[in-house]
Amino acid sequence: MKLYAFAYLGFSVCYLVMDAIWLGLVAKDSYAQAMQGMLREEFPVTPWVTFYLLYSAAVSHLVVVRSRHAPASSAFFDGAIFGMAAYGAYNLTNYAVLDGWPLGITLQDWLWGTLVTATSSLCGWFVLQKFYRSPNAE
């Protein structure tokens, strides 16, 4: 269980910090402008908290833990593939079915999701390398 706890902690802290900076500072205005009229006045907390918890668990299990014996580049590139698939599914579906969903936001958010998942996977990998010791290790 410690293995998964370290992977989860390493991934999720990096992911939350990077995404908070991205959504709160860097891309805030471009998202608001591009999605004008589509955004709620107040965002419900439960959906996004649920997403962060589940996404962090999925990437930690399927990327970070599985790449712990591989080079750092494996964690980064596997995270990029996971992020590309997940954020691609979200953004391309929105672009396909929502009238007025901007292509620019689709591409920007898809690229961001790929990068933040790759980087956060790498952070999780580093946490495992630094702090996790297998019970079988001497």
Describe what you observe in this structure.
The structure is a single chain. By secondary structure, this protein is mainly alpha-helical. The chain has one domain (2-131). The chain contains 5 helices and no strands. The protein has helices at 2-26, 28-34, 45-64, 72-97, 103-131. The longest helix has 29 residues, at 103-131. The protein is elongated, with a radius of gyration of 16 Å. The two termini are 19 Å apart. The mean pLDDT is 94.
Tags for this model:
78% helix, mainly alpha
Largest sheet: none
- Count of DSSP E strands? 0
What sort of overall outline do the alpha carbons produce when their principal axes are compared? Answer: elongated
Total individual domains: 1
Structural class: mainly alpha
Count up the helices: 5
* Straight-line N-to-C gap: 19 Å
Residues in β-strands, percent? under 5%
Gyration radius from CA atoms, angstroms: 16 Å
How do the helices and strands follow one another from N- to C-terminus? HHHHH
Arithmetic mean of pLDDT: 94
Helix content: over 70%
The unreliable regions are: none
Question: What topology emerges from the helices and strands here?
Answer:
Elements lengths: L1 H25 L1 H7 L10 H20 L7 H26 L5 H29 L7
Helix pairs in contact: 1-2, 1-3, 1-5, 3-5, 4-5
Summarize the structure.
With 138 residues, the protein is mainly alpha-helical.
